[in-house]
Design goal:
The chain has a single domain, classed as Alpha-Beta Plaits, CATH 3.30.70. Helices cover about 20% and strands about 30% of the residues.
Length: about 100
């Protein structure tokens, strides 16, 4: 990945809806590697406001897995209502300063 990812969506199902509602418009997210995740061996969980709010998409997680093992942080923000209506995205992360593996 040569282009910095500045608008990465967070994949969040209904289980995270309550936690997402508590987020301020801008926040700091912490990325953590989930070594025991049975669905994605490179799963990167996204935490903010005291709890898990979802995951990096599977196509991005392998690129940020090593950084997440160290507990990388990045800015996050609530997505516009139109993003939720069009794609179901509620949160966007700026990963431009997080080390990325090609």
């Amino acid at each position: 990945m040569s282009t910095p990812v500045t608008h990465a969506p967070v994949v969040a199902g209904p289980a995270y809806a309550e936690q997402l509602q508590r987020l301020p418009s801008k926040f700091t997210a912490t990325l953590t590697a989930e070594l025991e995740n049975r669905f994605n061996r490179c799963a990167v969980a996204v935490h903010a406001a005291g709890g898990k709010i979802g995951y990096l998409p599977p196509d991005l997680s392998p690129h940020y897995f090593e950084a997440a093992r160290k507990g990388a942080e990045c800015p996050g923000r609530r997505a516009p209502v139109s993003a939720h209506e069009n794609t179901g995205t509620d949160v966007l992360l700026d990963l431009s300063e997080v080390p990325c593996e090609a």
